[in-house]
Amino acid sequence: MPRPTSRYVCSACGAVAPKWAGRCEACGAWNTIVEEAAEALPGPAARGITGGRKIAFVPLAGESAPPPRTPFDIAELDRVLGGGLVPASVVLVGGDPGIGKSTLLLQAAARLAAGGARALYISGEESVEQVRLRASRLGLAAAPLALAAATSLRDIAASLEAERGVALVVIDSIQTMWLDALESAPGTVAQVRACAAELIRLAKSRGFALVVVGHVTKEGAIAGPRVLEHMVDAVLYFEGERGHAFRILRAVKNRFGATDEIGVFEMTDRGLVEVANPSALFLAERRGNVAGSAVFAGVEGTRPVLVEVQALLSPSPGGSPRRAVVGWDQGRLAMLLAVLETRAGLALSGADVYLNIAGGLRITEPAADLAVAAALASAATGRPTDASMVFFGEVGLSGEVRLVSQAEARLKEAAKLGFTAAALPRRPSAKGRALAVPQGLAAWEVGHVSDLVARIAGRAAGRARGAAGPRGER
C-alpha cells in the first residue's frame, strides 16, 4: 500500500491546492489552507470503475404519497421543518456559540422521548453529567431520553447499528467527531466530510432521523466544507442577539418543506419558549410618536411578521459619514439613501445614518425598502410617521415603488394587530383580480418614493403626536 502524501485543503470550501498558500483561489478566503494526509486510492478504483449493473429508469409521471412525519409537539420547530421530522432524514443546525442550539435540541429530543419514541442524544462537547444538569434546569430530568458522551465515530456507528426502533439521533456536534482511519485532527475538512457521510449512511439505512449540530465561523456560515450542507436534507440556522431574549430558527434549505420559514422562540430561565404571535412581541415596546420609526409588514416563509424599523440621523463631525446597520443589508441601505437624495430631494449625504430592525430579527426581502424609506424620511424631517400605518414595497433606482408578493397576507396581519392604514405599491389596473383589503384598513397606494416623502414631510406634527397607536403600544 503506497504511503499517504500530503495535500492542502481549504477549510472553508474544501478545495484542494497543490501547495500551501495564504489565500484560497476557489473561494478567496484567507488563512484557510491546511495540510492533510491524502488518502491512497485502492487499485481497482485507480484503474477505473467496472462491474456495475444496469439501473432502472421510471417515468416522471406518477403518484407518490407524502412522507410520514413525526412532530416534536413544538409548534415553531415543527413549522420550520415543514410539519415534523421525516424518517431517515438528516437535519443540520448551525448557530453562534451560546445561542441555544443544544438547549433547543435537548428540549425537542426530550419531548419526542416523552411521547413514546426512542431518542438518543450523543454529545461530543459535554459530559453526561453536564447534559443532566442542563436537563434538570429545564425541568426535563424525568424524560426517558438516552444520553451518551462520545467522539469516536467507530464506536458511535457500532452502537447505532446495534440499536433497534430508534426514531431520532442527535449529534452535538459534527466538528467533535473523529474517524481513526484518517490522520487529520477532529474538525478538519476531511474528518467532517467523512464523519458526516458515515452518519448519513447510517440514518438512511437504519431509518432514523438524524439531527447534527454544526459550528459556525466568525462570518456566521457553518464551519467545515460547503459540501456538508449539500449532503443533508435540511439546513437550519439559529439566529439572535445576546442582548435580546428572542431567537429565530430559520430554514435555508429543506427538501421536505418550505425554505425561509422561521420559528420564533424566547429564551427564559426554563429554556426556549415558543412565541405564537411574534408580531405582537416585536411591536410590544413600540412608541408611535417618535420620528424615525416605521412598521414593516413582512413575510418570512409562509408567516406574515410585523416588525419596527428604526432610523436615526445625526450630524457627521468628519468628512466620511458613518452607515451602521443592524438586521438589514448595508449595501441596500446605501442604494436607498442614494435614491432618496437623488429622486426625493432629501439631504442625507452629510449625516451619520443608523438603521435598526427592532427585536433582533434579520430582514432579507426587498419589500422592506418602503418601510426603511419611511423611517429615513421621518428621521430627516423630524415628523413621525402615522402610528397606525404599516409599509411594504420594493423601491427601484428610479424611485418607483414595485409590487411584492403576498400583499393580502401582510394586510391581514396588520388588520389583526389593530392597524388601520397601509402604504403599499400601486397596483396596475391590468393586473387582474383586485386586491382584497380587510375591512377597517385603508390602503394608500404609493407610486413613487417622492410621494411618500412629501406625505411625511407635510403631516402636521401635532396631529402625528396625537394619533392613536396600534394595540402593541397600549
Sequence-ordered SSE layout with sheet pairings:
Blueprint: E1 6-10, E2 16-17, E3 33-37, H1 43-47, H2 75-81, E4 90-95, H3 101-114, E5 118-123, H4 128-137, E6 146-149, H5 153-162, E7 166-172, H6 189-206, E8 209-214, H7 227-231, E9 234-239, E10 246-254, E11 262-268, E12 271-274, H8 278-282, E13 293-300, E14 303-315, E15 323-326, H9 330-343, E16 351-357, H10 369-381, E17 389-391, E18 394-395, E19 401-402, H11 407-416, E20 421-425, E21 442-446, H12 449-458, H13 461-465
Parallel strand pairs: 4-8, 4-9, 5-6, 5-7, 7-8, 13-17, 15-16, 17-20, 20-21
Antiparallel strand pairs: 1-2, 1-3, 9-10, 10-11, 11-12, 13-14, 14-16, 18-19
Helix pairs in contact: 5-6, 9-10, 10-12
Give your account of this protein's structure.
The chain is an alpha/beta fold. The chain has three domains: 35 residues; 202 residues, Rossmann fold (3-Layer(aba) Sandwich), CATH 3.40.50.300; 188 residues, 2-Layer Sandwich (Ribosomal Protein S5, domain 2). Helices cover 27% and strands 24% of the residues. The protein contains 13 helices and 21 strands. Strands 6-5-7-8-4-9-10-11-12 form a nine-stranded mixed β-sheet, with helices on both faces. The radius of gyration is 26 Å and the shape is globular. It starts with 5 loop residues before the first strand and ends in a 9-residue tail after the last helix. The C terminus is likely disordered.
